Every structure is written in structure tokens, then in C-alpha cells.
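Researcher: I'd like a candidate sequence for this fold, 136 residues long. If you have to choose between options at a position, lean toward the conservative one.
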């Protein structure tokens, strides 16, 4: 069966127990339609990048599933109809990563925020300044 990852955002005025209850509800929807939830994570209340339905924050939840596309479509349909769910995003993946998601890892485990790794063919700023001064 295809593998999927889902991220849900629920309204901020729900309690933590209600938000985790939504995870259970949609897990049973998937199970009833022939799928199974491999892993689920509750990421907590986080600030949104922009307001959604007059909400500035939302409860985030993450699901890793192994389900047929019909089960995923049914889950997304019910999530769109559910008053407490603001957004759902589902992505088909080739394989699930082991361990916690990037959101749940500590900063030391995933690398420092300023560490961008190899910058490829980009030169150092000093070289660009020298070139600019030389050309002018």
C-alpha cells in the first residue's frame, strides 16, 4: 500500500486532549477504510504564519500512514467537514523515516539553525566585494 504523511492543524481553543482525540478519530477513519497509522505525533500549539479563520495559533498533529488512496481521500473529506480542523496536508512518500520527525527532534540533533551546509559554487562575500570594487 502507498505510504503517506499528514499534517493537521486544529483550532487553538481546543484542549490538548481534544486535539489528540482528533488524531484518534482520523486514525479510526483510516483503519475503517483499510489503512493503518504507523506513527502519530502531537506537536502542540504553534503560531501560524498567517491567520486562518481568525485564528493566530493552532494545534499541530502529524500522522504517518500506510493506506490506500481511497482511505486517504475519505479522511481528507471528513477533515474538511470537521469544524475543529482548519487545514490538512497529505503527502505521498516513498518510505517513512525512522525515529521522530524533524519538528520533534532537538536542535542539537538536527544541526544548528545557522548551519546551511555546503553552499556549492557560491563564493565568499569578500571575493564579491573585491570584484565589485575592481569593476567600478
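Model: Candidate sequence:
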Amino acid at each position: 500500500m502507498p505510504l503517506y504523511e499528514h499534517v493537521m492543524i486544529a483550532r487553538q481553543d481546543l484542549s490538548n486532549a481534544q486535539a489528540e482525540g482528533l488524531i484518534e478519530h482520523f486514525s479510526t477513519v483510516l483503519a475503517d477504510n483499510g489503512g493503518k497509522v504507523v506513527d502519530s505525533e502531537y506537536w502542540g500549539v504553534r503560531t501560524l504564519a498567517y491567520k486562518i479563520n481568525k485564528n493566530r495559533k493552532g494545534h499541530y498533529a502529524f500522522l504517518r500512514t500506510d493506506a490506500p488512496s481511497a482511505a486517504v481521500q475519505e479522511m481528507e473529506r471528513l477533515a474538511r467537514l470537521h469544524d475543529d480542523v482548519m487545514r490538512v496536508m497529505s503527502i505521498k512518500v516513498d518510505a517513512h523515516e525512522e525515529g521522530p520527525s524533524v519538528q520533534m527532534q532537538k536542535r542539537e540533533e538536527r544541526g544548528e539553525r545557522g548551519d546551511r551546509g555546503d553552499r556549492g559554487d557560491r563564493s565568499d562575500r569578500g571575493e564579491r566585494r573585491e570584484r565589485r570594487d575592481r569593476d567600478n
